[in-house]
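Propose amino acids for all 444 sites.
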């Protein structure tokens, strides 16, 4: 490998050879340069010229315990000498067995089997296919539609886009997509005067009931992002919605899919977000943080009842879905090391305190005349900026980088989703960076 000596060199080679995700590449030729990263350490990313950035968004919501984490590194080194990968059809290995057992135990045994893939979107596709196919195996061929919330995000492959309701990701591909129906979001910001977040949740659940009452014979599954619709701007809602949705799905014989790709693994304060509603889904999708942000890994957990719908002498009644890297041993080992850290460091308890400090660091912003709906659940804080112009998020992003902080506002929503290792000084740094970047980016 040619060792780059400076930012400028790597930057030019990257622009010549790499097509970056979620990016209009032409912008990188202008006033929005790429950031070359030489190395990461803890919550910090370092470039080749000695600049550094505090990773306030966990590298797109994946990194839980910092970059170059010594414990995950050690686990991966040990796994490298033992087994890097083997196909999971016809073979099995220790990391995948142990991870499946431990994840199932974390659901209290309610979700007894784990199916693996590499990315979040693949997990969504698997849950949708599995739900449809399990109904079909039970003689309910008519159940071939899906239902999602307005503003939902479940990934960007063509199948996942069917249940994703974010125009910027979807509109160009609309002719390719078999779009699912949407029902109103329980977004707590929609409260009428005198309404509580739970009231908004009940109102949205009533709309869900009206939809299910008419269409349930055709609906295989209802898919939700529990508690927070992250990609459409950290939309937060009351757990009451999940309680009611679970009851309605039971009553109308519709599967409930909880997509915890972003909100699982402790992000909302509990290990799984759905626990805050005291429910269990029929399908649970995990990815992002599950490998500590180290390797691509996704998992769909489901019930024994769904599993049994496929268990048969006929091959075609099985779930004949696969990805080459299904159950990758290194990725599973990274996930096991991640679960070990949760247990050894009592992370959920520590994060209660960390979340309070995060709240205190951004609290002064609530008095800012342009700040609306400052909100938090667990290790996510967010606020909206009133009257933001279309270029606000780009200016804010750059202003954040100038203050040594990686933030990526979604439209007019600014948020923090830091790794679970940020210390008091790093939290204070993020709070100062947000305040400074806000002032710097309000005016074009
Ligand atoms: C990120 C995300 C996905 C898609 O995961 P990828 O690994 O990017 O394909 C799906 N659902 C939710 C809720 C997500 O946040």
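Proposal:
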């Amino acid at each position: 490998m040619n060792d780059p000596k400076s930012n400028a060199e790597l930057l030019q080679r990257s622009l010549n050879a790499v097509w970056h995700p979620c990016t209009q590449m032409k912008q990188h030729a202008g006033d929005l340069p790429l950031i070359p990263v030489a190395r990461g350490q803890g919550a910090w990313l370092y470039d080749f010229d000695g600049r550094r950035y505090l990773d306030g968004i966990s590298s797109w919501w994946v990194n839980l315990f910092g970059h170059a984490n010594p414990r995950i590194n050690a686990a991966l080194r040990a796994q490298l000498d033992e087994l890097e990968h083997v196909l999971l059809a016809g073979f099995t290995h220790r990391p995948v067995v142990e991870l499946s057992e431990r994840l199932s135990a974390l659901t209290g045994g309610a979700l007894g089997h784990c199916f693996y893939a590499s990315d979040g979107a693949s997990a969504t596709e698997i849950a949708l296919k599995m739900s449809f196919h399990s109904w079909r195996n039970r003689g309910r061929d008519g159940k071939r539609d899906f239902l999602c919330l307005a503003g939902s995000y479940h990934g960007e492959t063509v199948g996942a886009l069917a249940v994703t309701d974010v125009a910027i990701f979807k509109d160009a591909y609309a002719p390719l997509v078999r779009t699912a129906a949407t029902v109103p979001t329980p977004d707590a910001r929609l409260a009428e005067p005198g309404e509580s977040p739970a009231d908004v949740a009940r109102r949205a659940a009533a709309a869900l009931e009206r939809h299910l009452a008419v269409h349930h014979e055709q609906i295989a599954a209802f898919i939700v992002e529990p508690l927070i619709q992250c990609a459409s701007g950290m939309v937060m809602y009351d757990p009451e919605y999940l309680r009611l949705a679970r009851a309605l799905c039971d009553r109308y014989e519709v599967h409930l899919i909880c997509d915890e790709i972003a909100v699982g693994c402790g992000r909302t304060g509990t290990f799984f977000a759905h626990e805050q509603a005291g429910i269990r889904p029929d399908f649970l999708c995990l990815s992002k943080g599950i490998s500590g942000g180290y390797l691509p890994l996704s998992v769909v957990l489901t019930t024994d009842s769904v599993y049994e719908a496929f268990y048969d002498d006929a091959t075609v009644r099985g779930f004949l879905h696969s990805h080459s890297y299904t159950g990758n041993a290194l990725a599973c080992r990274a996930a096991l090391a991640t679960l070990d850290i949760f247990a050894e460091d009592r992370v959920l308890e520590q994060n209660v305190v960390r979340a309070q400090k995060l709240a205190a660091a951004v609290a002064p912003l609530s008095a800012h005349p342009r700040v609306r709906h400052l909100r938090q659940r667990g290790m996510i804080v967010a606020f909206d900026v009133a009257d933001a112009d279309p270029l606000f998020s780009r200016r804010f992003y750059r202003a954040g980088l100038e203050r040594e902080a990686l933030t990526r506002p979604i439209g007019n929503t600014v948020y923090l989703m830091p790794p679970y290792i940020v210390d008091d000084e790093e939290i204070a740094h993020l709070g100062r960076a947000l305040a400074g970047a806000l002032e710097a980016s309000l005016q074009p």
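The chain has a mean pLDDT of 97. Residues 260 and 286 are 5 Å apart (CA to CA).
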